[in-house]
Specification:
Chain lengths: 165, 291
């Protein structure tokens, strides 16, 4: 059946089987391989993407269920003008080693900072509790998210008067 | 790769439409909401519906409101909305405490209360909450609406009284002024199913337990409730000894299975401890203490 959705700002239509999972739709049909396919059981969060501004696990969502909705993947974090602060934070604070969990981690972190620009460590840990990392022990991931929060706070504080975000 | 068996898919545009589709496609059709219970079952081929009816567009089933002295929650209400609901938190602490430990924030963005109840997993958290609060389940078919007590809703593991051409549309929780409630869960790791969990409410008249509810999950008590412990506590003083004795009754009533989450004696121990803790906190809240 035909499914049409908006992915990273572009409307896409494909003829898919209803049983195709969103993660495979993104990776195999659209070749957006930034979204990783991990545990297949909605535990690990490597497949986290946004649907209508909220992170979801795309291994536990049918592609047809995303029809008519806005999907955002990690490829859209960098708007073309440079890295998102979350991406910068992961780079500068060594928030990854193997990198497998990173796309999901960053999509969850971006969501967190959008609704809570100044999260404490416990809030960050709770928020990423559905994203599993087997390398870092999470310390550097928490630092990376805090780096992004601080960076964005500084950027807002240093904005010239009258400028809008 | 885990792939569900093939099926047909259609989106319902209204509850009536969903019911018509269920009638047309018969017992091999399934309703899908958040999908976080059904899709994993389908991937493992433990469920093989021939037809999926997607009800995610039915926003008229997504609400938490006061209705005729009860709190009515629509079946499409997602876990995140229950967690964040000031209305639910005002009347029952149990919701926020249970929701905080259901899966993880990303899963809670999708999973629904209706899906949780209808999956009827014997380790499911909201089923214990519904049993503790003696909720009422509202079930609709094309011929009308019927209600079933939460404690009668489950017909066994993964089985409910919802018929093939019926849909759970609402869950109703009685409001009990002067009561307190709490939820206690032990899990192996963040977001996991319970090794054991207990949810309770206590309504006090002075320091006498005027009414109480005790829900348990993952420990093999029938209908997620322990009526014997409730009967014991009702009319008694809410003392530590009486509460501990109610916990002991739950320990004795529990009939859990040993599995990778733990042996039988540990789970029965948890049933006692968690009920005792939840009752203690419920009673304190009923007295107006901030705990």
């Amino acid at each position: 059946m035909d499914v049409t959705m908006n992915v990273n700002g572009d409307e896409v239509t494909r003829d898919v089987e209803p049983r195709l999972l969103l993660v495979h739709f993104l990776r195999d049909e659209l070749r957006l391989t930034g979204t990783h396919w991990g545990c297949d059981t909605s535990n690990c969060g490597a497949c986290t993407v946004w649907i209508d501004q909220q992170p979801v696990k795309s291994c536990t969502t049918l592609a047809v269920m995303a029809g008519g909705h806005d999907v955002r993947t990690v490829e859209d974090l960098d708007p073309g003008t440079g890295l998102d602060p979350v991406q910068e934070g992961f780079m500068l604070e060594h928030g990854l080693q193997c990198g497998f969990c990173t796309p999901g981690m960053m999509m969850t972190a971006r969501w967190l900072l959008d609704k809570n620009p100044d999260p404490d460590e416990a809030t960050i840990r709770e928020c990423i509790s559905g994203n599993i990392c087997r390398c870092t022990g999470y310390e550097n991931i928490v630092r990376a998210v805090r780096w992004a929060a601080n960076h964005e706070a500084d950027a807002t504080a240093n904005q010239p008067e009258g400028a809008s975000a | 790769m885990q792939v569900p068996a093939p099926f047909e898919y259609e989106r319902a545009t209204s509850v009536d439409h969903a019911l018509a589709l269920l009638e047309r496609h018969g017992p091999e059709a399934r309703v899908i909401a958040g999908g976080h219970s059904l899709l994993p079952m389908m991937k493992l081929r433990l469920a093989r519906p021939e037809m999926l009816i997607d009800i995610n567009d039915l926003s008229d089933l997504d609400y938490i409101k006061i209705d005729s002295g009860e709190i009515a929650v629509g079946a499409m209400t997602r876990h995140v909305s229950i967690l964040d609901s000031a209305l639910l938190a005002e009347h029952y602490s149990i919701f926020r405490e249970a929701e905080k430990v259901i899966a993880d924030p990303i899963v809670r963005n999708r999973g629904t209360i209706g899906g949780s109840f209808c999956q009827a997993d014997p380790s499911e958290d909201l089923s214990a909450v519904g049993a503790a609060l003696r909720a009422t389940m509202v079930i609709r078919s094309s011929s009308g609406t019927r209600t079933v007590a939460a404690r009668d809703f489950h017909d066994g593991p993964y089985q409910t009284l919802v018929g093939p051409a019926e849909m759970l549309v609402e869950i109703r929780f009685p409001i009990r002024p002067g009561s307190g409630s709490a939820y206690e869960k032990v899990e192996r790791r963040a977001g996991d199913w319970a090794i054991a969990a207990a949810g309770t409410f206590v309504r006090l008249d002075g320091d006498t337990v005027a009414d109480c509810g005790i829900g348990l999950t993952a420990v093999g008590v029938e209908h997620f409730a322990c009526g014997a412990a409730e009967d014991f506590l009702r009319g008694k003083q809410a003392t530590a000894d009486n509460i501990a004795a109610a916990g002991q009754i739950c320990h004795d009533a529990a009939d859990p299975q040993a599995d990778q989450r733990g042996p039988v004696d540990y789970k029965r121990h948890l049933a006692r401890e968690l009920v005792t803790r939840a009752l203690t906190r419920s009673a304190a809240r009923a007295r107006g203490e901030k705990v």
